[in-house]
Amino acid sequence: MFKDGKGGLLLLLTGFMLICFWGMFHQGEEELSKDDFIRFHVVANSDSYEDQQLKLEVRDAVLSEVAPELSEMKSASDSRIWLTENSDHINRIAEEVIQKEGYDYGTQTEIGVRWIPEKNYGNLIFPAGNYEAFTISIGEAEGENWWCVMFPPVCIIGEDSKESKEMAERFKGTKYEEMILSSEEGEPYVLKFKTVEAGKKFLEWIKS
Fold first, then answer.
1. CA-wise closest residue to 88 among 65, 71, 104
2. 28, 128, 189, 208: which has the fewest C-beta neighbours closer than 10 Å?
3. pLDDT in tens, 121-165
């Protein structure tokens, strides 16, 4: 059909763009995307039992410190700004825990995009992909990772039903509402992002 193949490539690109635009406009401006979340990542020094326990101690101390502020945030942007401004303070909290437990590991905090495998948080299922994450690396950072969702504050409120209801009320009328309400119900809620869905439709279109 196309002698040099350029026409076929153009057709594929055009189809991809049309499907992407269809996904953007058909699903609406309030559709969730990966950019609407900030994950929390703690990387242990190693996989030894002691280092894994230390990782959890650091996690608990940091979550306790950031909870009062981040639980009131209404956007990923505001959370990102607060975390960036307080990164050094959070790093010191991690170091204090480590020193208290008798270790001399250094720590490093950063906020950036990381690949995260599929994760479940209660009834919420986040697909694998690249997400923005606030990361604390302990020592050599060669141990098993721990993940949760820092914004919206899913891992901060945990399984406290009272705080879950308060969060649902705070995000009422926003694009997060359905997700948060579903986190309290029995049925699993699988998040679907418009860019991912558009990509799937593009692959289906090529196959057809």
1. 65
2. 208
3. 878 889 999 999 999 999 999 999 999 999 998 877 655 556 667
pTM equals 0.75
Nearest to 114 by CA among 84, 88, 137: 137
Distance separating alpha carbons of residues 176 and 156, to the nearest angstrom: 16
Low-confidence ranges of the chain (pLDDT < 50): 1-2, 16, 18-30, 195-206
Distance of CA 102 to the CA centre of its chain: 31
Single out the residue of 188, 167, 186, 203 nearest to residue 72, CA to CA.
Answer: 167
Q: For the chain, give percent helix, strand, coil, nearest 5.
A: 50, 20, 30
Closest CA to 51 of 120, 110, 97, 109: 97
